[in-house]
Amino acid sequence: MQALIVDGYNIIHAWPSLHATLRDRGLEDARRQLVSALGEYAAQTGVAVTVVFDAHARPGAIPSTEKLDGVTVIFGSKRSTADHVIERAAYKASQRGEGADVVVATDDRLERDVVGAMGVATMGARALEAEVARVAGTVNVETRRMRDDSKRSTRLEDGLDPEIRRRLERLRRGEDR
Fold first, then answer.
1. Which of 16, 77, 80, 128 could form a disulfide with 105 if both were Cys (CB 3.0 to 4.6 A apart)?
2. The pTM is what?
């Protein structure tokens, strides 16, 4: 997979943590949390991530695009819903012969059928959540390993036999003359 297109509100409602954020802190925080998680995923995997939201609660008649945390964020419009934007992106990838390199993440069965018919792979919300968690877990393990490695001393004396260290210390103090 070289590119991931995410149906934003669909994923927010499907992931328990994001749904809780939506309920407790609101839509903007839930969007921010999703984009942040996807930004970490993109940074670790090198996958180009695009998240698409409907125009819900956004003024404007035309779709808008911005880059946040390394993720391309697209807001649809009243005439061009998130589904339309996703389908158009999948169609363009398919026409360029890159359909096999793109994955669309959504639990919307109709959307999955439409983009699947174009030769673009799909994954459900839970599969995406598991993939993002797997990558985050891999990063945590690697970070822990690096932290442990850095705690180990790299001083030459730490690799010496204890008897040799004692003798050298006596020499240093002038006791062994």
1. 128
2. 0.74
